[in-house]
Amino acid sequence: LINDEWYLKVISATRLIAADFGSKPSSDPYVRVSLGSNSVKTKTIKKNLSPVWNQSFVLPVTSFQDPILFQVFDKDTLGSDDSLGAVKCFLHGINEGQEQVRALKLYGGEHGSNIQAVLGSKSKGAKQAATTTVASQAATNATGNATAGKLMGKFMEKAQKFGSDSSNKKDLEEQANIQFGIDSTRPGILGRVDNNFGVLLVAFCWFSTQQAAQSYAIQTPPAIGLLTARLISGRNLLAADFGSRPSSDPYCVLSLGNQRQTSKAIKNTLNPDWNQLFGFQDVQNGDKLVMSVWDKDTAGSDDSLGDGIVEISALPVGQETFFLVELFGGESGENIHGVIDDKVQPMGQNIASVTAQNAIGGEAGKLAGHIIKKIPQGKENKNKGTIALGITLSSPLGSSQPAPMQRSIPTREISVVEGANDLGCPP
């Protein structure tokens, strides 16, 4: 008979699926946490794709082989709630009192009533198809050779899909989570999402007594400066390296004014776990912490995987505050799949709409060009990467002039390590 207890804290999430249609598509998210036959539920946060719950629970341990199930839903007043994704967290190999703070990728999910999201996902496919068709017809017209046209069409089709097949080589736990995400989703008429970039931040720790679990609070890391940054992990980073499964060797540079700290680089992963502490001195009210993520290259310059900024002015003293920071920018590096993705959208509209009439001919060509022009381009951030970190102030911020905000630059002298074995939670 097991009498142990799990302490659980659901902290926050970001990049959640917008399941509700409106002038600004959003969701009303909550999290259901299940362990064995026991389950608890967070409060619902209205109209928010980056909710903060900060809610703690205690659940009895039924078996150390049972994973903790996290399911995120959009609360609906009519009909069933929509799935925003789910993840199983396997917790074997964790010792009593060993606190874990984890950023978890979400799997599965559905569009709910958000038809705009469905149209957005379909438009990319339409542009890719149009690009393939026009390239094939243009090659045929230019060379007078139908075989050349077919070869060009096949090349474009393979180029656009390059890397997607190889990325399906998942480990067993990730495969289990993909299936769990599917099983947790009962899609309505708009169907499941193609890709879920949602990230859920949680903490957990197990104890041999219920009293110890109920009285527990997340431990503040030791102060190593006026500001201590706990760099936890990255999720869904850009793949900058070409290979059978495109990946990166990511490291993070944290900058605060002229102060810079650099993490280790983790090899061959888009979901690194750094778990490192960094300290900063002489921090002023109004300063901003800049995080720049890079792909470590042995030859040539390192590739940017994006940047993020954290405002630190309103943080409490002596208490760790957690952040899920969305990255922007970044580059494809040597990953030809990423380069092609960048080119497909303008090719699909600029080339296809202009040359559809000549390449396809007649009324069908006119219609194809007209439809392609009507497909919205949008200005979506292509970088879906997220960084998880905690920040603690050991004393109040200074009142001097804030330091100029500077983007971090790549660092040559850093340690490179293999991806550490995960303790059970998939990235």
UniProtKB/TrEMBL annotation:
GO cellular-component term (any): membrane
Gene Ontology MF, one: calcium ion binding
Domain of life: Eukaryota
Keyword Metal-binding in annotation: yes
Domain C2: 1-104, 206-325
Region of interest (Disordered), residue spans: 397-427
SMART domains according to UniProt: C2 (SM00239)
Signal peptide, first to last residue: none
UniProt xrefs under Pfam families: C2
InterPro entries: C2_dom, C2_domain_sf
Protein keywords: Calcium, Metal-binding
Keyword Cell membrane: no
Database matches in PANTHER family: C2 DOMAIN-CONTAINING PROTEIN, MULTIPLE C2 AND TRANSMEMBRANE DOMAIN-CONTAINING PROTEIN
Protein name according to UniProt: C2 domain-containing protein
Gene source species: Vannella robusta
Organism lineage: Eukaryota, Amoebozoa, Discosea, Flabellinia, Vannellidae
